[in-house]
Specification:
about 300 residues; mainly beta; five-stranded mixed beta sheet; 21 strands; about 35% strand
């Protein structure tokens, strides 16, 4: 009887320690909480951008000129409801990725040229905030590589707003380096790297992705607190980093279709009983809510 009591106490202690600090070892991390099937036809390049403002989901097509808004779906799989199309004005090359800024109640948006950063209102009006000078604002030439190696930075880029210090994390698609910019422009209207943490590399051992994926690259970013969460096209995992580049954890991320996710990420701490990451499938346009590593990992609107 005494031995049974000790075993029970041990089990309780282990379970309690697993729950402390937000359940770092949660077995449900990466679970698909919801799947949304958009009703509009794909434009041939499929969708990348995804945003969440605390009440609705927003997305665009590849370098799209329409901001789509839909209702938050129920758990499980469903077709998009409450669909509204909002023309985007002020972005000659369209929009590649968006991220909601709760402080400004607007979206940061990277243009289809991968170099123009806009503040995009929910009305669709976009205002240029700064431009990224490839020669000076992207040291290391993006560290190109990964599964789709190129000698230069791709035009497609992913972003996410960080409300903890009013900054923006930016990565050309499939690069190995995430750049960290201030939300305010330089005196000449270009991007400003953040002192102390100007970039984050995902290919430097032991903080690289090669053990899990066979390569290292960035396909989507989510920030809403102390962590930078990264997904990888072609790899059924997502990763949690500190902002200094330290890799803290790896979690499953695989849609039911089995297609590799190549779209951006967005944090959601409001819609369900668990906190989720919104992601868009780069192949069929479906939108998924994946459970975060733990409630508190990534709050909406930049945290």
């Amino acid at each position: 009887m005494q031995r049974s009591s000790r075993l029970l106490l041990l089990v309780v202690l282990v379970m309690s320690r697993s729950a402390v600090g937000g359940a770092q070892v949660a077995t449900s991390a990466g679970e698909v909480i919801a799947e949304v099937i958009p009703t509009e036809p794909l434009n041939g390049f499929f969708g990348k951008a995804i945003g969440y403002d605390g009440g609705y989901l927003y997305y665009t097509e590849w370098a799209g000129s329409i901001l789509h808004r839909i209702n938050i779906p129920p758990k499980g799989s469903s077709y998009a409801a409450g669909h509204i199309d909002i023309p985007i004005l002020g972005t000659p090359s369209g929009v590649m990725a968006i991220s909601y800024d709760a402080r400004r109640d607007a979206f940061w948006a990277i243009g289809g040229d991968g170099l123009s950063m806009y503040l995009l209102q929910k009305s669709g009006l976009a205002t240029l905030q700064f431009t990224i000078n490839p020669a000076t604002d992207r040291p290391g030439n993006c560290k190109p590589g990964g599964i789709t190696w190129t000698a230069v930075c791709p035009t497609e880029a992913k972003i996410n707003y960080d409300g903890t210090d009013d900054t923006i994390w930016y990565a050309p698609n499939t690069s190995k380096r995430i750049y960290h910019y201030r939300a305010t422009p330089s005196p000449i209207g270009t991007a400003q790297l953040v002192d102390g943490t100007p970039w984050l590399d995902v290919d430097v051992p032991p903080n690289d992705m090669t053990p899990e994926c066979g390569y290292s690259q960035v396909s989507g970013i989510a920030v809403g607190g102390p962590y930078v969460i990264v997904n990888v096209a072609g790899c059924p995992h997502y990763f949690k980093y500190l902002k200094d580049g330290t890799k803290l954890g790896v979690y499953p991320m695989q849609p039911p279709s089995g297609d590799p996710l190549s779209g951006d990420l967005e944090c959601d701490s409001r819609s369900y009983d668990v906190w989720v990451l919104w992601a868009r499938d780069g192949w069929n346009g479906h939108i998924y809510a994946f459970q975060q590593p733990f409630n508190g990992a990534c709050a909406f609107g930049g945290g």
